[in-house]
Design a protein that fits this description.
- The protein is mainly alpha-helical.
- The protein has 2 domains: 48 residues, no CATH class; 166 residues, no CATH class.
- Helix content is 71%, strand content 0%.
- The protein contains 8 helices and no strands.
- Helix 5 packs antiparallel against helix 6.
- The longest helix is centred in the C-terminal third of the chain and has 41 residues.
Length: 235
């Protein structure tokens, strides 16, 4: 599939989700900064635009159904089933690994104490964030789509609540990026034991899943919800 260099990173991944892995390898943020055109992102990163375009022109066909094809409530449901379920299950398992590895290896690898602290902050951000989405925001999105009427939340303005969630995505993204840097891109050192390697693999997989999770919300779901809500509120 030919790649439009003026398309945003978010739109390119929405068009073919397989491209997320390519952008991850290139270090290009398609979730929190997914509104940047490809040509701008390449220029800022000092990467060759033609090379990136070729790498994003993947062989074969993209999945028959992509997240952007779903209705808003169905997309929210997909996010819960695919990303929330994984994150709720993975966070405690990974916490145990981070604690164990930091306890055993931090004398030789003092950066692990910082990794442990940062991971704790990731969990502290994600737990209330996902809970609020599941209990308040996603049911409100379903009502908005079903009733075609503006949403009213007891806790405040619905549009502001969505923008707050987007801001929280930035915080989690920054924390995971710092872990990425501290672990040299989740690369195990020569003396890494199996638990150390499992921890790094888990952190890398969590980071990728969070990126896909945030992409679906920032670039696909929330813009559509905000547009509909503001339009209905102004009608």
């Amino acid at each position: 599939m030919a790649v439009a260099t003026t398309a945003t990173l978010g739109d390119l991944v929405a068009e073919d989700p397989r491209r997320s892995r390519v952008l991850e390898q290139l270090g290009l943020d398609y979730c929190c900064n997914g509104q940047r055109p490809l040509e701008e992102a390449a220029r800022t990163a000092g990467l060759d635009l033609a090379d990136i375009s070729a790498r994003l022109d993947l062989p074969g066909e993209p999945p028959a159904v992509v997240a952007g094809d779903l209705e808003m409530a169905a997309l929210a449901h997909d996010i819960v089933d695919t990303h929330h379920a994984y994150t709720w299950e993975e966070m405690p398992r990974l916490q145990a690994l981070v604690d164990k590895v930091a306890g055993v290896h931090r004398e030789r690898h003092p950066e692990l104490a910082v990794v442990k602290e940062l991971y704790g902050r990731v969990v502290a951000e994600l737990e209330p964030h996902m809970t609020r989405e599941e209990r308040v925001i996603f049911p409100a999105i379903s009502r908005l789509e079903k009733t075609q009427a503006p949403v009213r939340l007891s806790s405040g303005d619905f549009s502001d609540a969505l923008r707050e969630l987007i801001a929280e995505h930035d915080v989690v993204g920054d924390l995971l990026s710092r872990i990425h840097e501290l672990t040299d891109g989740h690369t195990p050192p020569q003396d890494a034991c199996n638990s150390y390697r499992a921890m790094l693999t888990g952190l890398a997989e969590l980071e990728h899943d969070v990126h896909e999770h945030v992409h679906k919300e920032n670039n696909l779901l929330f813009p559509r919800v905000l547009e509909m809500h503001e339009r209905l509120r102004g009608a």
